Amino acid sequence: MNPQDYQQIPVKLIDVPGGRRKVDPDWVAALAEDIGRQGLRVAIQLVEAGGRYRLIAGAHRLAAARALKWKDIPAEVKPADAFADEAAMKLAEIAENLMRRELSALDRAMDVAAWRDVYERAQGAVKPGRKKSSQVEKIEDADANTLASHRFSESFSQAAQRALGFSQPAVYRMLQIAKLDAETRERIALTKIADNQSSLLALVDLAQDLRGRVLDLLMSEPPQANSVAEAALLAQGKPAARSKDDHFKSTINKIRRLDRSQKFSLFDALETEIRVWAERRGWTA
After folding, report:
1. CATH of the domain at 50
2. The model's pTM
3. Over the stretch 169-191, which tens digit does the pLDDT of each residue have?
4. What is the distance of C-alpha 246 from the center of its chain?
5. Where do the ParB-like N-terminal domain residues begin and end (predicted)?
6. What whole-number distance in Å separates Cα of residue 3 and Cα of residue 76?
7. For FRET with 6, which of 40, 85, 188, 194 sits at 20 to 30 Å CA-CA?
8. How many domains does one find in the chain?
9. What is the spatial distance between Cα 192 and Cα 69, in angstroms, rounded to a whole number?
């Protein structure tokens, strides 16, 4: 952000119009931490309003500045006649929220992996092994991603973890997704697969040659499979288990109707499978 392009506006003179979406306190806390360390990267947008200023864009940044007790905040200020009427001003506020491309699950995973790499270069990489102290070090025989996801997620405050979705299991899943090879990432970028975390994790588990054949089936016109699991069966010459879908759904519905004690009895019977499933998702006791 070039300071010459913006004005320093007193925070107390800025009004937030009614009807705006509610400010997320966790996101405000996370932004305040980041702004406190790095400064404000993107100025807020205001319009002059009779000696005061009306917020157009940057409600969370403004709330973070107030949390930091800033007296002034950098802002791009438009003159009062920049908008033809109230409706035009409202459209500008709405466009600020709508006209942005959210990260796909794949994009987010790659960004988190890159962020983790930078963090480890500064802090030192985590090595797998048996340790005796701290939550991370109590994890025995954990793989590198489990330990790295613990350490990286714990570098954020609780508010930041909630706002960014950086819990340890979530970070672990993103680091797993980031293992996908460059060719696969290139093929699925901007497709629905790139924004489906379950599909991405399923692709990670496949051998690279099988992964390519699976993508051929999923990305053909029309698609020859509805899921990674189905495509993997077809790619190996095995019949797709579509006929089992109804049975599976019926079983799930029956489990959901069980009372608490019956569910616990079922979980006890499936303890080994549940532990394997939880470990694959980075969950630890």
Report:
1. 3.90.1530.10
2. 0.63
3. 888 899 899 999 999 999 999 89
4. 32
5. 7-98
6. 10
7. 85
8. 3
9. 42
What tens digit of pLDDT does each residue of 46-82 get?
999 889 999 999 999 999 999 999 999 999 999 988 8
- Kindly state the average pLDDT of the residues 262-274: 88
CA distance 146 to 284: 9
Q: CA-CA distance, 34 to 164, in Å (whole number)?
A: 12
Which amino acid, 52?
A: R
Q: Residue 215 falls within a domain, yes or no?
A: no
In-domain check, residue 234: no
- Count CA within 13 A, CB hemisphere, residue 254: 7
Cα dist from 244 to 5, 171, 214, 239, 253, whole Å = 62, 32, 20, 11, 14
CA nearest to 79, candidates 57, 99, 53: 53
Does residue 187 belong to any structural domain of this protein? Answer: no
Whether residue 114 has pLDDT greater than 80: yes
Using pLDDT thresholds of 50, 70 and 90, give the confidence band for residue 3.
low
Range of the domain at 135: 105-179
